[in-house]
Amino acid sequence: MQWAYPSLIWRVEGASKEVFLTFDDGPHPTVTRFVLDCLAEYNANATFFCVGEQIEKHPTIFEEIKAAGHVVANHTFHHVNGWKTPTDEYLKDFEATERLTKTKLFRPPYGKITPSQRKRIGQESKIVIYNKLSADFDKNISAEQCLQNVIGKGLVAGDIVLFHDSLKAEDRLRYALPKTLSYIYNQGLTVAPLRYELFS
Ligand SMILES: [Zn+2]
User: Which residue from 25, 36, 53, 200 could staple onto 166, CB 3.0 to 4.6 Å apart?
Assistant: First the structure.
């Protein structure tokens, strides 16, 4: 019954030179602003997996993300853990944010999603994970380690990189993001946003 459980997406197959930077848990007025400024320096567009309640708290920066040509995507309304949330409740949380983001791209918080949640959400949306985890949220690692988590083994076209535009990640993000962008463009790669059509 493989067809009933749409696959989770870990990277973008067939990309020629695009790396996909993604930012989870925002928007946040100052940290997202920092990300937007970094991306603008390279004319780069990325993907923001937004938490619905953060969108409601910070609507202005949410609009700025979109106005700058980035893609906004769904990371639930309350950053819920799928393993601890009944499917109907999880779906309501998903839908409340989908009404705001509308791009049919979803990333489950903590990567935790049950088969029934995956089946229901996967009917309409693409469920996108990542293959390069910066671990910028981890206060026990150095900023340099965070950078090495992303570029240490090299980046190639199609890689999906996870950062967070959150206060928790800010110290490491401020160090690692500019260096990651510089690395990508020095390699002759470019940065692109995720889109539903990439996977259909
Ligand atoms: Zn998250």
Answer: 25
Domains identified in the chain and CATH numbers: 15-199 (3.20.20.370)
- Of 25, 75, 164, 165, which residue is the catalytic one? 164
Task: Report the separation in Å between the CA atom of 152 and the middle of ligand 1, taken as the mean of its atom positions.
Answer: 23
Q: How far is the CA of 45 from the centre of ligand 1 (A)?
A: 20
164 is catalytic: yes
* Sequence-separated (6 or more) residues with CB below 8 Å from residue 194: 12, 20, 22, 47, 71, 73, 105, 128, 160
Determine if the peptide bond prior to 109 is cis (ω within 30°): no
**Which entry of 24, 25, 136, 165 is annotated as an active-site residue?**
24
How many angstroms separate the alpha carbon of residue 28 from the centre of ligand 1? 13
pTM of the model: 0.96
Q: Measure 74 CA to ligand 1 centroid, in angstroms.
A: 10
Each residue's pLDDT expressed in tens, for the chain with a length of 200 residues: 445 567 899 999 999 999 999 999 999 999 999 999 999 999 999 999 999 999 999 999 999 999 999 999 999 999 999 999 999 999 999 999 999 999 999 999 999 999 999 999 999 999 999 999 999 999 999 999 999 999 999 999 999 999 999 999 999 999 999 999 999 999 999 999 999 999 97
